[in-house]
Amino acid sequence: MKLSPSEENYLKAIYHLEQASDTGVTTNALAQRMETKPSSATDMVKRLAEKELLHYVRYRGVTLTNEGTKSALQIIRKHRLWQVFLVEKLHFHWDQVAEIAEQLEHVHSEELIARLERFLGEPDFDPHGEPIPSKDGTIKQTAKKLLAELKKNQGGVCVGVKESSPEFLQYLDKKNITIGTKIKVLGKEFFDGSMVILVGKDQSFISKKTAENLYVQTL
Amino acid sequence: MKLSPSEENYLKAIYHLEQASDTGVTTNALAQRMETKPSSATDMVKRLAEKELLHYVRYRGVTLTNEGTKSALQIIRKHRLWQVFLVEKLHFHWDQVAEIAEQLEHVHSEELIARLERFLGEPDFDPHGEPIPSKDGTIKQTAKKLLAELKKNQGGVCVGVKESSPEFLQYLDKKNITIGTKIKVLGKEFFDGSMVILVGKDQSFISKKTAENLYVQTL
DNA sequence: ATCAATATTTAGGTTGTGCTAAATAATTTT
DNA sequence: AAAATTATTTAGCACAACCTAAATATTGAT
Questions:
Q1: Number of structural domains in chain B
Q2: I need a surface site. Which of A161, B67, B80, B103 has the fewest CB within 10 A?
Q3: Which segments cross the bilayer (chains A, B) (predicted)?
């Protein structure tokens, strides 16, 4: 089914909200996520229900149908593949790619995505460490943990972030932390959860908040 | 100025019609090119005139302003760079890229295009041999001739096509002719303009019609 | 120069996607 | 459980981009 960019964006948003909350998605939450008014969300939700991409019960919110979930995963797949392209091939910084990928993901062509995937070497994860759904909708899960969960002397490789605001990504950059960076916990402060860590060959101090937004794959 | 995909497509069409005819562009011609109704073309033309991208005189047609021409060239630039990407990097065949490039060209990001251009090695021509406008709107001109203009024993390199229908491009493919293919005229039939040519190491017979739609750069 | 044919515009409708304001349902507080 | 608060929907409007049908301007033929 060919969907409009707007319809695709709503599907994506609903999928992510479902993942985050495990319950049905309310109109309000959806409107907030889409930065629009609840009335607009209602309009769209009705149209997507009409297309059987989601179940909608008035005043009760929505859940994606199997079809809807499949569609959402395909859009996320495109988004993440384009992000890999932008970072790996065009050497964008990982905090600059979201906006552009958001446009590229709406280009309609199965063939394009298949070839792009091959060109990129069939990556499993995007530059933020998020898994890239396969063509049939399966997702590889990482054994990723929050850095905050590591104990003293444990180490890991940075595989992604929880919050991906430009500010946070730029802050990480200043600390020389990016996807693939090896990190070891040298010390952990009980009092405020802050850590002293080893990044490459340098020591660095990070707050609890930072440690709670950085995913690592333990070694 | 940020334009909608539709506005961009109209600008592109007007630019091409201007190039082809050297006169102002009529509403009818524009509507035909856009595969829409004249009334729709009128609507759009008014909006573009409002934005000072073209001069519009009722019942008299339009001409692009300097601003409009600049915009059109930027869109053409994007289109052709994406076509290079699709053919060179993703190994699409040159008859499959137009439709996808038409979508990609509407992605808004200066930075993206700058980086794409660098990634592609700053090409001067697209896979159909059409020149790629530079960032400032200048166009490299080829010394290209129609194959039909060559005399016996003259040779050249295929640099593009006049008609770029999938049928014609596929036909050329069957004859092993693509951008960069060396061609030499072995014989030319006065009667019907047909030719016997050397393509690589093999002889090939082509009609006048084919020879009139194939551009070569003479050696 | 007038008339017929053609080109173009205007008027008014449709669809998709947004909005605000008002109405209604659901939830929370008391 | 009723009232107050919050969430959601409905009604009605707006804009971009299309459409058809009718009106008007231009062009070409006589």
A1: 2
A2: B67
A3: none
Q: Do B115 and A109 touch (CB under 8 A)?
A: no
Task: Please report, for residues A17, A19, A100, A213, the alpha-carbon distance to residue A22 in angstroms, rounded to integers and kept in the order given.
Answer: 8, 6, 29, 21
User: Residue B40: which CATH number?
Assistant: 1.10.10.10
Would the Cβ of A42 be found within 7 angstroms of any atom in strand C? no
- Is the residue at B99 inside a domain? no
Q: Decide if A128 is inside a domain.
A: no
Q: Are B5 and B102 in contact (CB under 8 A)?
A: no
Angle made by CA atoms B90, B96, B98, in degrees to the nearest 5? 100
Contact B190, B115 (CB under 8 A): no
Host domain of residue A54:
5-64
Q: How far apart are CA B128 and CA B94, in angstroms?
A: 7
Residue A45 in domain: yes
- The answer to whether strand C lies under 7 Å from the CB of residue B56 is yes
Residue A157: CATH number of its domain: 2.30.30.90
Q: What's the confidence (pLDDT) of residue B163?
A: 87
Taking Cα atoms as reference points, which of A112, A147, A143, A117 lies closest to residue A132?
A117
In a domain, A193, yes or no: yes
- For residue B174, say whether its CB is under 7 Å from any atom of strand C: no
Q: State the nearest Cα–Cα gap between A100 and chain B, in angstroms.
A: 7
* CB-contacts to strand D (7 A): A 26-29, 38-39, 41-43, 45-46, 56, 58-61; B 4-7, 36-37, 39-40, 43-44, 47, 59
Mode of pairing for the β-strands spanning A195-199 and A54-57: unpaired
Cβ atoms of B218 and B165 within 8 Å: the answer is: no
The answer to whether residue B139 neighbours chain A at the CB level (below 8 Å) is no
pLDDT tens-digit map of B27-83: 999 999 999 999 999 999 999 999 999 999 999 999 999 999 999 999 999 999 999
Among A89, A100, A108, whose Cβ lies nearest the Cβ of B109? A100
Of A17, A47, A64, the residue at which a domain comes to its end is A64
A-chain CB neighbours of B3 within 8 Å are: none
CA at B44, C1' at D15: how many angstroms apart?
13
- Which of A64, A85, A104 is the C-terminal boundary of a domain? A64
Section A23-49 average pLDDT: 97
Q: Give the per-residue pLDDT at A7.
A: 98
